[in-house]
Input
Amino acid sequence: MSVGVTQVPTSARPGGPIGAPHDLGPGTGPLGAAIRQLRDAARSLELPCALFETLARPQQEVTVHFPVMMDDGSVVTLEGHRVQHNLARGPGKGGIRYAPGVDLDEVRALAMWMTWKCALMDIPFGGAKGGVAFDPAERTDHEVERITRAFTHAISHFIGPDTDIPAPDVGTDERTMAWMMDAYARSTGQFAPAVVTGKPLAMGGSHGRASSTSDGLGFITMALLQDLGIEAGKASASIQGFGKVGGGLAAFYEKAGIAVHAVSDRYGAIRNDRGIDIQHLRRHVAQTGSVVGFPGAERTDPADVLAADVTIVVPAAIEGVVTGANATSIRATVLLEGANGPTTPEADEILADRGTLVVPDILANSGGVVVSYFEWVQARQQHRWTEHRVRQDLRERMLRAWEMVRRDAAGRGRTLRESATAIAVGRVADTQRMRGMM
Output
């Protein structure tokens, strides 16, 4: 394996007395994975147990239950959460997720990963996350708007441009952020464009925000292919998830000359080993709502997307999809994490032992929060940057972070995830100490 990264066998990884706090929920699932990654970083950094305990727990969290009237006149009570994991380095930053399976432990894990992501990219934010447990696909636009406004009102005391800044995530988009911004203004009496990011341009959004996560993944891809000595025109990819992130990345790959052999969405998967015409596929999805039925490819088992014999496999949907049960089926040279937490700790160990290069989420998909930071700065300055400046600054930050993590991993004999997490946790721990918060 080149890239200057040494994959460390599981048996050689450092151990220590630090264990997961007993009251943080189950040791499995996203939260279990997040705590395990933190524990490993804390051991390598030789952090005091008390500091580990502090970093393993959310600093603040709120759960709200709020009634919303549906179009038929019925009233449904929904549950929502907002978690601020750590605010030592700045205001909370993280998305709002609308999905049926949203629960507090999932949001806690996502908020923790946001803390490390912001620290790794050297952005002056802490980590936060939020979500409401419902399926927006089963609700009308009017119902989703009322849910958004009611949820925003319920947490309006908890968010703000200097305390906690939401953004889009799974099931939400720039329109959702427009509703949140307006609802916050109505609840607080303050017009504050910096209270959310990922807004429409007409409401103070930033050029390049919609494609930022995909672009960041693309910039990392081009850097790692160069380090591996693989020409883009000879590389191939498969992408699980063809939404905002996966669809945008597929378009980036097509433009760069990387052939996309397989993609999937919530309805099914398609495959063409000669390469899928992504522009035509995106038009098909816009018309039909799914990749299924695209005439330029054949339908395949969704499991084949992760197991495709390609250069790069990108899980870009939800967390926990690459597990101990299917990790051995991964044949790609590189697993690039487009989603947050898609790889379980058990799968991580298997992939490391097999020599698969895993580019972790807190590095790979951080383009979204980087440009969210740019948008927040623009809102505070009341000055809009050009699209060229946004894209240039994003590329520079992504490549700087890639080089830092790559060099650390090579020099210390760590995986990329171990290095990225240790760097991020170390920065947060140092700030905790300097502020006298520990």
Remarks:
- The first helix runs from residue 29 to 45.
- The chain has a mean pLDDT of 93.
- DSSP finds 14 helices and twelve strands in the chain.
- The two ends are 40 Å apart (CA to CA).
